[in-house]
NAD-dependent protein deacylase
Amino acid sequence: MAKIVILTGAGISAESGIRTFRASDGLWEEHRIEDVATPEGFMADPGLVHRFYNARRAAAAAAAPNAAHRALAELEQDGRHEVLVVTQNVDDLHERGGSANVIHMHGTLTGALCHSCGHRWPAPAEMAPRDPCPACQKPATRPDIVWFGEMPYQMEEIWTALRAADLFVSIGTSGNVYPAAGFVADAGHAGVPTLELNLEPSAGSRYFDEARHGPATAIVPAWVREMLG
């Protein structure tokens, strides 16, 4: 059974209406990245950060999985391949599209985290700074999102899977955000074949053995059809 590790980024959810991260102008949905996606921003104005993620949570809940999400689920469910999806996205469209083996390296909008005791629980639709932690009761609730300056989740598990893979595929990523941008090099050093599926060449496109470019809803299902024969 072939082991396939698939990295997905904002490009796979863009066609579901989830706005992509735009770093070129330093803004993210009309907010400065430093204000809404860093621990320092949260400490300075937790109300702003909660409102921002409440809006993103609502937008994600209203979105539907697209053909690319469903194709990856079909690949996993076929049974001839062992598929691990490692996603930089904080939406749950992979799971709702049918994928079961998913790692959210940057956290998820459906999770809440206590920054005092570290307890995690399912996030309600609306969160606020004074919400008490169910475990310690302190008003220390934050979104369970990995912000800039924080370590992504399950990195050892991801690196182990990369080195043991028979194929590494990167879908809808910019190739600018580390450590995910380094996965192609990690796979290459381990002798793992690599494939990029992206709307346009990423910053690290030259490191892939093969690259195919176009909308995710077109090129991902086409690649999956090839894999399924």
